[in-house]
Amino acid sequence: MxxxxxxxxxxxxxxxxxxxxxxxxSRRNFSKSGSGPVHTGPSHRERHAVRPNVAYRQRxxxxxxxxxxxxxxxxxxxxxxxxxVLTQAPGEGYLHAVSAxxxxxxxxxxxxxxxxxxxxxxxxxxxxxxxxxxxxxxxWGANIYLYPIEAGLVELYTRPPHPQQQIExxxxxxEWREEEGYWQLSWTLESLKDFYLNNVLIHEVGHVIDQRNTxxxxxxxxxxxxAIEYGYRASRHRR
Length: 239
Fold this sequence. Notes:
This protein is α/β, with parallel strands linked by helices. The chain contains 9 helices and 11 strands. It has a single domain, classed as Collagenase (Catalytic Domain) (3-Layer(aba) Sandwich), CATH 3.40.390.
């Protein structure tokens, strides 16, 4: 009983941290200045995978992220009542965290009146431009785009993670550590699937169904809440 109480207290603390940090993260001004890759440390091949200091992976809302986002395929609304799931090749050196079937199975656990508002979910390809300003996922209209991750399951950055990124990684099994002046976020296949299916995907679903909020801050607050309630907490209760 004591162990269960401790786990619940930890969960509450982590979730409270995300809520408290949501406003801070939504106000951050991401700039391209000083964002070039560093040129010392990893090998030549690894160097190209190092994230510039402003290029932490973020969830994307097309209304705000278009400044940094690479062009995407627009899927016009066709009145689908069941989302269509499309898969592009992930790109050399990358893999998709989840499969189309895993996405369908996860969506089946949500109410139909929620999923019926989604037109297309696309597992997109990593391109050179997306590699500079990467996203985990993005919502555009009634469409959701999920992006691949490094095949080695290690993301490499040039500066420490923000508090919210540390909290979310810990909630889903990701592990941050500093090594030789770089910050690494390491995943296992299991923890990465958990993160994408119960956080990234559900966060973007929250953006799709949010027809009330218009400001970035309020939309992010709602999507964070939706991801916690319908993603993190719901998935833990099924275990």
